[in-house]
Amino acid sequence: MEYKLSFKEYHKALMKNKLMGLKCKECGTVTCPPQMSCSSCTGFDLDVTELSGKGKITTYTTVYVAAEGRESEAPYIIVLVELEEGPWIMGNLYDLDPSRASLDLIGRPVQMGTRIFPGDKYSDGPAARPAFRFAD
Ligand SMILES: [Zn+2]
Description:
By secondary structure, the chain is mainly beta. It has one helix at about 5-15; strands at about 20-25, 30, 45-50, 55-65, 75-85, 90-95, 110-115, 125-135. The model has no long low-confidence stretch (mean pLDDT about 95). The structure holds zinc ion (ZN).
């Protein structure tokens, strides 16, 4: 079985500020990040599709104790976003002072961009991750 969209290809697109997913030809569900099969019906007949990066915050957390090597970034906000196309993805939120994060964030529209993080001893060089900004 071959991946329609490998993580390597997904990451390469993310480095160029593009969010790629997979659209199921059976049920229309969009899966992101990429998986072997549809996240809804487990079908394998998938098309690669570019997503808008637009969505709404469903929940968030503020990180005060960062992972090793990322201590200088703390505190920071991580949001879980429901994209317009359906998938839920996580990323940093940069438009708000972390000390001001509150439940008011839930439901706020956001637009995804990309932030490149430097490599550390656990990774294979620089890595792109979703980074959100308010869209309202
Ligand atoms: Zn499906």
